[in-house]
Structure formats: C-alpha cells, structure tokens
Write a structure and sequence with these properties.
Blueprint lengths: L12 E4 L4 E3 L7 E7 L1 E7 L5 E8 L3 E2 L12 E4 L3 E7 H10 L1 H26 L3 H12 L7 H8 L3 H12 L1
Antiparallel strand pairs: 1-8, 2-7, 3-6, 3-8, 4-5, 4-7
Length: 172
C-alpha cells in the first residue's frame, strides 16, 4: 500500500518558530499540512485565556486533517517547538487522494489509529484518581522512554509535579 505521506513529496516547507501560529481559529481552510519536524498543538482558547490542547501533531503526522472538509478552522495551530510543516493546497491534496486509492486507504488506516488513541485518552481522562489514569496509560502504552514522562502528564491530564509525586509514591 502506498504511503499517503508521499503526496507531500516536493511540497513547500514552512518554517514555524516556537509559539508561532500555523493558522488561527476561524481562518479559512485552504491547505493540508504535514508536520516534518517539531510539534504543533491544536488549541482552543478557553474563556479565561488558557489553551485547551486538543491534539499535538509531531513529525510524520497530518495537522488539522479533520478540517479538510470544513470552511474554517475550529482551533489554533501553535508550534510547541521550532517546526517544519509541509503545505499542500487542499484541492491538490484531495485530487492526489482521489487519484491514488492506495494512499487514501493508508490515510484512512492512519486516521483510524488516531481515533482509537483519542478514544483511549478520553476514557483515561474520565478516571478520577491520578493513580488510575497512570495505570490505564501504562497498560495501553507501556513505560515511556527517559525524558518522556512530561508528555505522559499532559496525555493523562495532570501537571508534571502531580505525576512526579505519583511516581515517587510508587517508588516508596
């Protein structure tokens, strides 16, 4: 099966500095994006100004693919680190998917995997205790590599200090 990412071969690359927006909520959807390096967060500002992180796209991931058939974006895309983003006009991307059914199937498989991960995250976030959230996450994904615990904290919806307290409690 052909990899849908190959559709972006030769696409222009946009350099995005940490903190810079790729797009903003209510901007017109004109492009399909592929994160080549770095991390881009899809965020929706809450009434108090704090961002609600909906998703973080990293290298090799599509960005805001759920907006492909929308008129406007429903959130902001903010670089969490310096990043490179490949950009294709939406019509060009859709034509390529239409002309390459194998790439379309590969994209569907990728998106189905992401839906499964989001459903698991929702169930983890429904758990009340930090210990239960951590246990559920570890059951699904196993122990993270060194330096990745901070990402686990975000994925299970707790602050890093809260997670580190739970880890320390388990060591004792």
């Amino acid at each position: 099966m052909s990899d849908w990412i190959l559709i972006f071969d030769g696409a222009p690359i946009r350099e995005v500095a940490k903190g810079e927006a790729v797009f903003r909520q209510a901007d017109q959807v004109r492009f399909m994006y592929l994160v080549r390096s770095g991390a881009i967060a899809l965020e929706r500002p809450l009434p108090d100004g704090a961002p609600l992180t909906l998703h973080i796209a990293t290298s090799g991931m599509a960005l805001a693919e759920a907006s492909l058939f929308a008129k406007t974006y429903h959130c902001d895309a903010i670089a969490r680190s310096d990043a490179q983003v490949a950009t294709l006009d939406r019509a060009t991307f859709l034509t390529a998917i239409h002309n390459r059914p194998d790439a379309a199937l590969c994209l569907i498989e990728t998106l189905a995997t992401e839906v499964q991960a989001q459903r698991a995250r929702v169930e983890i976030l429904r758990l009340k205790r930090v210990a239960d959230r951590l246990d559920a996450w570890l059951d699904l994904y196993g122990r993270p590599s060194k330096g990745e615990w901070i990402n686990v904290a975000e994925q299970i919806g707790v602050s890093p200090p809260t997670l580190y307290r739970e880890l320390a409690r388990r060591r004792n």
